[in-house]
C-alpha cells in the first residue's frame, strides 16, 4: 500500500513498533473501507483534495479572532466545495454526496467545523427526503451545485426536544396562495441552526401549519432568507449568529425571526402531506412522523461518524504513547514507552475495538435504513418504528461512548493532550455536541424504551417479534441465565440483562398504575430504569452485530488478520462484560471466580494486542493532514512539532508584549 512518505525520519520507537506488527495492515484498511476498490477510490479522492495544499493554514485556526476564523473557514469551504462539485463527486457519484470519504477529506480543511457543513449535512438530505418530484427538480440541482446555500432551522430558543411544542407559525392564505411565516414570541426565535447566522441564503424551516383556521402540526418549508446578490437579509427576516460556544467556533450557528414573512404555497415541502390551492389540508397517507425523516437519516450516519472520530483520537493517542517514555520501572533501566503500561492499554485498545464495532454496526444500520426506505416506497411503513428505535439508541450510545473514549485518549496523552495542537480538544468538543444535537441522549433512549416496552408486552402475549428484539421471545420468562464463559455466552448474557431490565420496567409501571397512578406518571417515575433498559438493549445489539459482522467480513481474510480482528472483538465483549459486572451478577449465575477469570483473560488479551497497537491505528490510514495533530503524526516527531506549534502563537510575535509597559510595569512601580 502506498503510504504518504514522511518528510522526516520516523521516531525510532515508532519505527520499531511498525516492525513488530504481525498482520497485513493494508488488508485491514481494505476491510475498514469496505473493499480494496473502495480504498483505491478513497486515496484518489484524498489526493485530489489534499495534494495541492489548499487545506493548509498559515496561522493555526485557533490563533485567529472569531471573525477571522469564520472568514478563513468560508474561504476554505469555498475551495473545498468547488473541489467536491467539480472533481470529487465525479468519482463517488452525485448520489453519494455524503460519502464518508468526502467527510474525511473535509476534516483536512477544518480542524473545527465548516460553516457549510449543514448545507450538505442536513439541507440537501431534507430536499431529497421531503420534496415532491417537481420541488426536487426546482431546488436540488441548485443546492448540489451550491447556487443556493441552505441550513436546517428547526430548534427554537424555547424548544429543541419537543418538536410538537415549536411556536413558529406558517398560516396559509388561499387568496394569495401564500404561507405567512411568523415568530409570535421570544421563545419562537429559531436558534442553533448551523450555517444559518451568516452563511446560508436559504433554509428549511419547521413550523406549525395553519390552514382553514386549524393547526395541523409541524411541517417543513423552504425559505429564501437573503438576497442572492447582496446577501442582505430580506425584509421581514431578522437573522444573526448566536455567539461563542464550547466548539463549532469556526461556523455560524444562527438565530432567525420571522415578521409576517410571505412564501409561495409551493415552498411547503409536500412529499408526505400537502395543502391544496384552496387551503384543504391532505395529511400523509403513510405515517405521521415522516417529516422527521432527516433526523432519522442523520442519526443513522452519526454512528459511522463516531467510528471516524474515535479512530482519529486513538491514532493520535497510540502513536504518542509509543513515542512518550515516562517513569523508571526498575532502577537504572530506561523509562518504558507509556504504551507498555497495561493501564494505558486499557484506556486505548478499547478505542480501536470500538471504532471497528461502530463501523461494522453503522454499515449494518445503513442497510437496515435502506431496506426500510424501500419498504416505504412500496407503501409499507411497518418497519419504521423498529428503525426509529434502533437509530435512536445507536445514536445515543455511540455518541456517548465516543465522547468518553475520546476523553480517555486525551487523558492518555497527559498534559500535551490538552494542547489544541494535539487536536484532541477539537475532536472532543465536536463529539460533545453530537451527544446533544439530533436528539438528546436521554430523550432518544426513552424513545427506544417506548418501543421495547411494547415489544415486551407482545412477547408476553406470545407474538413473534422483529429481528432486533427477537431475543425477548427467547428470554421473556428466563430468570437468571446460566453463565457460559464463551463469546456467544457473553452476548446472550447481555440480551438477558436487557430483557430483565425491560421486564422490570414493565413491572414497575404496572405496580405503579395498580396502586392508583395514571399511566403517564407511572412512566415518568420509571424513566431512570427505562433509560437503563434502552441502553442495555443497545449494548446487546452492538455486541451481537459487531461479533457477527466481524466474523462475516473476515471470512476470506488471511489467518493473521482474522486473528487480530477476532482479538479486538473479544476485547470489546470482555471490556463490556467487566464494565457491567453488577448487571451480570443480577441477571446471570456468573460467580466471583468466573469474573476473576474474565479479568485475567482480559489483561492477557491487552498484552497480546500490544505489539500490533501501532499497526492497528496505521490501518485506519488517516493522513497527517486529516489528523492535524502535533502528537499523532505518522513520523512521531512529537516534541519538534510541539515546539514548532508553540512558535506559531501570536504571543510570540514580539519579545515583550505591550501590556507590560501599559499595566505590569506601573503595577511593579506602584504607579497604577
Ligand atoms: C460532506 C459533509 C457531510 C457531513 C456529515 C456529518 C454528520 C453530521 C451532520 C449534521 C450535523 C447535525 C447538526 C445538528 C442538527 C440538529 O440538531 S437538527 C434538530 C434535531 N432535533 C431533534 O432531534 C429533536 C429531538 N426530538 C424528537 O425527535 C421528537 O420530538 C421526539 C422523538 C423526542 C418526540 O416527538 P413527538 O412528535 O413529540 O412524538 P411523540 O408524540 O412523543 O411520539 C409519537 C410516536 O411517533 C414516534 N416517533 C417519534 N419520532 C419518530 C421518527 N423520527 N420516526 C418514526 N417514529 C417516530 C414515537 O416513537 C411515538 O411512537 P409510539 O406512539 O408508537 O410510541
Ligand atoms: C452544536 C449544535 C448544533 C446544532 N445544530 C442545529 C441545527 O442545525 N438545526 C437545529 O434545528 N437544531 C440544531 N441544534 C439544536 C439541537 O438539536 C438541540 O439542542 C437538541 O435537540 C436538544 O434539545 P434542547 O436544546 O431543547 O434540549 P432540552 O430538551 O431542553 O434538554 C435539556 C435537558 O432536559 C432533558 N429532557 C428534555 N426533555 C426530556 C424528556 N422528555 N424526558 C427526560 N428528559 C428530558 C434532556 O435530557 C436534557 O438533559 C444544535 C445544537 C448544538 C449543540
TrEMBL record:
Active site per UniProt: 438
One example GO MF annotation: FAD binding
Location(s) in or outside the cell: Peroxisome
Positions bound to FAD: 155, 194
Gene Ontology BP terms: fatty acid beta-oxidation using acyl-CoA oxidase; lipid homeostasis
The protein's annotated pathway: Lipid metabolism; peroxisomal fatty acid beta-oxidation
Domain Acyl-CoA oxidase C-terminal: 488-668
Entry keyword annotation includes Lipid metabolism: yes
Cofactor(s) needed: FAD
Keyword Lipid metabolism: yes
Pfam families for this protein: ACOX, ACOX_C_alpha1, Acyl-CoA_ox_N
Domain Acyl-CoA oxidase C-alpha1: 292-453
Coiled-coil stretches noted in the UniProt entry, renumbered to this chain: none
SUPFAM superfamilies for this protein: Acyl-CoA dehydrogenase C-terminal domain-like, Acyl-CoA dehydrogenase NM domain-like
Keywords: FAD, Fatty acid metabolism, Flavoprotein, Lipid metabolism, Oxidoreductase, Peroxisome
GO CC list: peroxisome
Gene3D superfamilies the record matches: Acyl-CoA dehydrogenase/oxidase, N-terminal domain, Butyryl-CoA Dehydrogenase, subunit A, domain 2, Butyryl-CoA Dehydrogenase, subunit A, domain 3
Occurrences of domain Acyl-coenzyme A oxidase N-terminal (ranges): 24-149
Similarity comment text for this entry: Belongs to the acyl-CoA oxidase family.
PANTHER family: ELECTRON TRANSPORT OXIDOREDUCTASE, PEROXISOMAL ACYL-COENZYME A OXIDASE 1
Name of this protein: Acyl-coenzyme A oxidase
Gene from which this protein is expressed: jg18692
Amino acid at each position: 500500500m502506498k503510504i504518504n512518505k514522511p518528510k522526516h525520519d520516523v521516531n525510532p520507537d515508532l519505527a520499531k513498533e511498525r516492525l513488530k506488527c504481525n498482520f497485513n495492515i493494508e488488508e485491514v484498511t481494505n476491510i475498514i473501507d469496505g473493499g480494496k476498490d473502495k480504498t483505491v477510490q478513497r486515496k484518489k479522492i484524498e489526493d485530489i483534495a489534499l495534494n495541492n495544499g489548499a487545506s493548509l493554514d498559515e496561522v493555526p485556526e485557533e490563533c485567529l479572532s472569531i471573525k477571522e476564523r469564520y472568514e478563513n473557514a468560508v474561504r476554505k469551504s469555498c475551495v473545498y466545495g468547488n473541489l467536491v462539485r467539480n472533481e470529487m463527486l465525479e468519482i463517488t457519484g452525485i448520489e453519494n454526496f455524503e460519502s464518508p470519504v468526502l467527510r474525511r477529506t473535509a476534516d483536512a480543511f477544518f480542524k473545527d467545523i465548516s460553516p457549510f457543513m449543514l448545507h450538505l449535512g442536513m439541507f440537501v438530505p431534507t430536499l431529497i427526503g421531503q420534496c415532491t418530484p417537481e420541488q426536487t427538480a426546482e431546488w436540488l440541482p441548485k443546492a448540489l451545485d451550491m447556487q443556493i446555500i441552505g441550513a436546517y432551522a428547526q430548534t427554537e430558543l424555547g424548544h429543541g426536544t419537543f418538536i410538537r411544542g415549536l411556536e413558529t407559525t406558517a398560516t396559509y392564505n388561499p387568496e394569495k396562495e401564500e404561507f405567512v411565516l411568523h415568530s409570535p414570541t421570544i421563545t419562537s426565535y429559531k436558534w442553533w441552526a448551523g450555517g444559518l447566522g451568516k452563511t446560508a441564503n436559504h433554509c428549511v424551516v419547521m413550523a406549525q401549519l395553519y390552514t382553514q383556521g386549524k393547526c395541523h402540526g409541524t411541517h417543513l418549508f423552504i425559505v429564501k432568507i437573503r438576497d442572492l446578490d447582496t446577501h442582505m437579509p430580506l425584509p421581514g427576516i431578522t437573522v444573526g449568529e448566536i455567539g461563542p460556544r464550547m466548539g463549532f467556533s469556526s461556523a455560524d450557528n444562527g438565530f432567525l425571526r420571522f415578521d409576517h414573512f410571505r412564501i409561495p404555497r409551493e415552498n411547503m415541502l409536500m412529499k408526505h402531506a400537502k395543502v391544496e390551492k384552496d387551503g384543504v389540508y391532505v395529511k400523509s397517507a403513510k405515517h405521521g412522523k415522516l417529516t422527521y425523516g432527516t433526523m432519522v437519516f442523520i442519526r443513522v450516519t452519526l454512528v459511522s461518524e463516531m467510528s471516524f472520530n474515535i479512530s482519529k483520537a486513538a491514532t493520535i493517542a497510540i502513536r504518542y504513547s509509543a513515542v512518550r517514555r515516562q517513569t523508571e520501572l526498575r532502577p537504572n533501566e530506561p523509562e518504558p514507552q507509556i504504551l507498555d503500561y497495561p493501564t494505558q492499554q486499557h484506556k486505548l485498545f478499547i478505542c480501536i475495538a470500538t471504532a471497528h464495532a461502530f463501523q461494522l454496526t453503522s454499515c449494518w444500520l445503513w442497510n437496515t435504513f435502506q431496506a426500510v426506505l424501500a419498504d416505504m416506497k412500496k407503501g409499507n411503513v411497518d418497519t419504521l418504528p423498529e428503525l426509529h428505535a434502533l437509530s435512536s439508541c445507536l445514536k445515543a450510545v455511540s455518541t456517548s461512548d465516543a465522547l468518553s473514549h475520546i476523553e480517555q485518549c486525551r487523558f492518555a496523552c497527559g498534559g500535551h493532550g490538552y494542547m489544541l495542537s494535539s487536536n484532541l480538544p477539537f475532536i472532543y468538543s465536536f463529539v460533545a455536541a453530537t451527544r446533544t444535537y439530533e436528539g438528546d441522549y436521554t430523550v432518544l433512549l426513552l424513545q427506544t424504551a417506548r418501543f421495547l416496552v411494547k415489544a415486551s408486552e407482545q412477547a408476553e402475549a406470545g407474538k413473534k417479534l422483529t429481528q432486533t428484539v427477537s431475543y425477548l421471545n427467547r428470554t421473556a420468562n428466563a430468570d437468571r441465565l446460566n453463565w457460559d464463559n464463551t463469546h456467544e455466552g457473553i452476548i446472550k448474557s447481555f440480551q438477558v440483562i436487557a430483557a430483565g431490565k425491560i421486564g422490570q420496567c414493565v413491572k414497575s409501571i404496572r405496580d405503579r398504575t395498580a396502586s392508583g397512578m395514571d399511566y403517564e406518571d407511572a412512566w415518568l417515575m420509571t424513566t431512570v430504569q427505562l433509560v437503563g433498559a434502552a441502553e442495555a438493549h443497545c449494548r446487546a445489539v452492538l455486541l451481537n452485530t459487531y461479533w457477527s459482522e466481524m466474523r462475516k467480513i473476515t471470512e476470506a481474510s488471511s489467518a493473521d488478520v482474522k486473528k487480530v480482528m477476532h482479538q479486538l472483538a473479544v476485547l470489546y465483549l470482555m471490556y463490556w462484560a467487566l464494565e457491567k459486572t453488577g448487571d451480570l451478577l443480577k441477571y446471570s449465575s456468573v460467580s466471583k471466580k468466573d469474573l476473576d477469570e474474565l479479568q485475567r483473560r482480559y489483561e492477557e488479551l491487552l498484552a497480546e494486542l500490544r505489539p500490533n497497537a501501532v499497526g492497528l491505528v496505521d490501518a485506519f490510514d488517516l493522513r497527517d493532514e486529516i489528523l492535524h495533530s502535533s502528537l499523532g503524526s505518522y513520523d512521531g516527531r512529537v516534541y519538534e512539532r510541539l515546539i514548532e506549534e508553540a512558535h506559531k502563537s501570536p504571543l510570540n510575535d514580539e519579545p515583550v508584549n505591550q501590556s507590560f509597559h501599559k499595566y505590569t510595569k506601573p503595577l511593579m512601580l506602584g504607579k497604577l
